[in-house]
Amino acid sequence: MSRIAIFPGSFDPFTIGHASVVRRALPLFDTIIISIGVNNSKRPLFSLEQRIETLQRLYKDEPSVEVASYDTLTTDFAKKMNAQFILRGLRSVRDFEYERDIAEMNSQLTGIETVLLFTEHQYACISSSAIRELIAYGKDVSQYLP
Ligand code: ADP
Hints:
Layout: E1 4-9, H1 16-25, E2 31-37, H2 48-58, E3 65-70, H3 74-80, E4 85-90, H4 93-110, E5 113-118, H5 128-136
Parallel strand pairs: 1-2, 1-4, 2-3, 4-5
């Protein structure tokens, strides 16, 4: 059976921290589906189309990486994609607390396991929200984007 993981997130925008998680998870899974969660109550800086297009271009030569979007419960989307795993990244204790509760609930309710990779330390400070703030003040953020 092939090992399929979804990597869910807002990816607004997708950063070098996210790319590092995907790269280091490649040996673990046959397929990683980068899954852009659409939250209708949040207005993104980058449109869904922009995010999908950027990611498809970035991973066009990586056949085991797919890009998708969803507006349902993450575990329902995982089931729809036949994924047995949810991939997430951990930067801090704050991330850990948050991920642990969700991972435990998801596992209890659906059997879908969460695989967490620690951030590479040089990326620990990088978040999409900080990058959006820099963009809002007209700063060049290209060094944080893959
Ligand atoms: P969400 O809104 O669901 O947290 P994000 O797009 O911010 O979505 O992040 C998606 C996943 O990537 C999360 O598991 C997050 O912890 C992880 N992540 C974000 N930034 C980094 C980083 N710099 N290093 C490692 N993992 C990261």
